[in-house]
């Protein structure tokens, strides 16, 4: 659920942990500023979970060059680092 849980799991002997969806949200997925585009996909920001389709309005889980431009990798990296702390 958060960085502390990751640390606890590792301290208890886990070889690896998975943060999947939480990391996507920390990177900026489901951002309300893309609400109109989420609605065009039949969902809403905060509820989008069809990352495998490659139509992610936030541009994080897509191969579409135009959507990919929406992601600021430096800002996304900072948000993910903050989440993990």
Describe the structure.
- This protein has helices spanning 3-11, 20-27, 35-40, 65-68, 73-84.
- With 85 residues, it is mostly helical.
- It is elongated.
- The N and C termini lie close together (12 Å).
- The model has no long low-confidence stretch (mean pLDDT 91).
List the helices and strands and how they pair.
Blueprint: H1 3-11, H2 20-27, H3 35-40, H4 65-68, H5 73-84
Descriptors:
single chain, 85 residues, mainly alpha, 0% strand
Strand content: under 5%
Order of helices and strands: HHHHH
- Beta-strand segment tally: 0
Structural class category? mainly alpha
- Identify the overall geometry: elongated
Q: What profile does the largest beta sheet have?
A: none
Low-confidence stretches: none
Radius of gyration computed on alpha carbons: 14 Å
Q: What's the helix count?
A: 5
* Mean pLDDT figure: 91
Percent of residues in helices: 40-55%
Q: How far apart lie the N and C ends?
A: 12 Å
In short:
This protein is an all-alpha fold. The chain has helices spanning 3-11, 20-27, 35-40, 65-68, 73-84.
């Amino acid at each position: 659920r958060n960085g502390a849980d990751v640390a606890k799991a590792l301290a208890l002997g886990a070889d690896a942990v998975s943060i999947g969806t939480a990391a996507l949200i920390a990177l900026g997925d489901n951002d309300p500023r893309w609400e109109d585009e989420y609605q065009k996909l039949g969902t809403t920001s905060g509820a989008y979970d069809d990352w495998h389709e490659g139509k992610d309005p936030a541009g994080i889980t897509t191969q579409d060059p135009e959507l990919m431009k929406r992601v600021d990798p430096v800002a996304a990296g900072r948000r993910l680092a903050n989440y993990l702390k």
